[in-house]
Sequence to fold (820 residues):
Amino acid sequence: MTKRAPTRTTRRTSTRGRSGAPASRRTAKTTPARNKRRTGRAGIHISAAQVAYGAGVMLLGVALITLLSVLDEGRGAFGEWWVTLLTRALGWGRFAVPLVLVIPSLWLLTRLSGEPLALPWKRLAGGLLMLVTLLGLAHHLSIPSSTDLAEASRGGLLGAAISSALQVAFGWSGALVVFVLILTLALTVTLDLSLEEIVRDSVSLGKRIWGWLSAVAGTGQTSPSPSETPRTAPVIRVRNRTQAKASAQVVTPVQTAVSSPVGSASAQAEPSGRESMTKGEPASVPSPAASRPTPQEIADVPDVSTYEARRWALPPVEDILALDDESPMSLRDIREKTRIIEETLLSLGVPVAVVEVNPGPVVTQFGLEPGYVERQDRKGKVKRMKVQVAKIASLSNDIALALAASPIRIEAPVPGKGIVGIEVPNKETAMVGLRSVMESDEFRRQGQRSLMAAFGRDVSGLPVVDDLASLPHLLIAGATGSGKSVCINAIIACLLCRNTPEDLRLLMVDPKRVELSNYNGIPHLITPVVVEAGRVVGVLKWLAAEMDRRYQLFSDAGARNLESYNKKMIARGSPHLPNIVMFIDELADLMMVAPDEVERHICRIAQLSRATGIHLVIATQRPSVDVVTGLIKANFPARLSFLVSSQVDSRVILDTPGADKLLGSGDALYMAPDSPKLARIQGCYVSDGELERIISFWKSQNTQPETHREAEPVDPGKTVQKPLWPSMPNMNIEETLDTDDNSDPLLSEATDLVIRHGKASVSFLQRSLRIGYSRAARMIDTLEEQGIIGPPTGTSKARQVRATGAESGNGDAVEDDDYE
Fold:
């Protein structure tokens, strides 16, 4: 039986490719190219970039030849023909041909590098439209002197064609109106400005030119720049800080006189006793009694002839303080950020429109007007619904990501406006100088208030000023380097530029010894800057006693506050009482030394001192609950918070978060007592040189040292010197507590408490009398020495009360968990 040979299965390869063409044909097509690559003979290949580069070189060459032909007389035959052709075609437009050719040539030359030159095509198109319109207008306004319009026209054949077409359609006058409209449109597109801005800038330029021509002609009548008017959409408020120097003189008078001799007729004619003095006249030096009256003198109202007149010169603001710069935010950046905000929110389903932009020194506020969204209900009916404000506020992170700016703050809504404010940090910040705020209209309107303080500018660039008499106290918080100390110096400088020592006296506490110590020597200080924390309690006690003394004076004179009392005293020819402002640079250090006494005296002064003209400005860099207690916060409705380290600190100082997301370097949130909303401001900056000039100015007038009579002996336990105002010796709390225990004014009260309750311990006296541990322990030792209580038992029981008599009560030992 024969075996069958095994069959082989072969795979047939299709002779057609994917395209349907025969394989032999595809092979035939690709064979020459492969052979060329193998043999190394490649064909000539020119890329598109190389073609563009060559075209750019040719255009650049034509532009250079055109420029030389137009400007040079010896241009040759070709140049003569080329210039004649351009003149007949474009007229005066031949001078713009080189520029028109250079721009596309540069763009073509940069294509070979892969990064072509970014050109503002919209502006270039506007410029080309403006050029063509000018050619037509030149022909329209020209009066040809020959029959050849191409030679006689200033706009060439192109201008003649445009002008003729418009004259046929609208007539000569109508064509002129059309030319003006097209030219205005081209100008707005080219300059990327609105018509209002173009008109305003043109008027400003015209006035400047007219002022310059008038000055050259000898008239010297220069016109000031017009005030800025707000734009409609978006409204951009631009500050004009280059005020005239005459307006600066309105802020503070150059010279003031406080009192005049009572025996003179001028003093009777003018009870206020205010006089002016020329700048070059030297100030007279008064007697110590006139410059610093004692409480006895004020209370007893002695013969007014004993008071000698003292005239003080106020510092010239325009010579001491420097102007700040304008906001660096440009209109181009504003429009770009406006577009990004609108497009970002629209892509997230929240249509809005930016209707107002307020560029500030550090942040720019964009005012958003919520739009409408269309939604379909269950019945299929489409309803328009307004975008919710909360939805915009929830997209802060998306907006910050799109703007590449962090952090941003959303104020929804802006108080008094129907918009939502988005505060975006500027790329470059501007300095807010103290002089620009003091020369503002808002500050000048309150010029009669002597305690006006300049805080800075808000996000709209408007000055933020307030009167310390209406606050009446200010609490400032901020981390190290956030601008807290600069703010305090700015407030002090503002007060020193507006008040003489007869109207304002200062108390300064600087435990750090470097912030306020340079003010030593100015005549406004009641006592040198206090740098020892142990002396502060004595200073606060003296200030509380001065407050009580003033209330007694008001009661005797029938006055309700300091202003009415001073009016009565000036009418009688008696010295008036000055305002007193106390600055404490670091509250945390004082709360560590004597927390109970510091808190008690600060709260008492803050509660009662408003009518007496005594005000507190307290700052701390650690606004924790053990430093800024609830009682202190309740008596300080005006608060200013710079950058803090955590949201908890922000809630402590402002009762709301936000201060932990500030930018630092003067960026702050201000809580005014009469406003429910926080205001974001950039604090005023005053340099060391400006402060030194102010201090030197006042020190130069304090040439003669003041001598005071010796103080009468005082009770060391009270640490307040009553007889002499304003000198304050014996204010050191350590020296006060180191005296004899029997002289403690609270010892009798402690004895009554111990006998009445039948128990005695250190903590019991601390709680009952609200005193410190050292003082309570010394009282316990004194009571033991006097035999009122027994020795310590060494157990958890309190000491045995040994007092007898009607007041002894229960003399048995009492269980006391507070045994010390």
Remarks:
- The chain has five domains: 48-195, 196-226, 331-374+383-425, 460-694, 734-820.
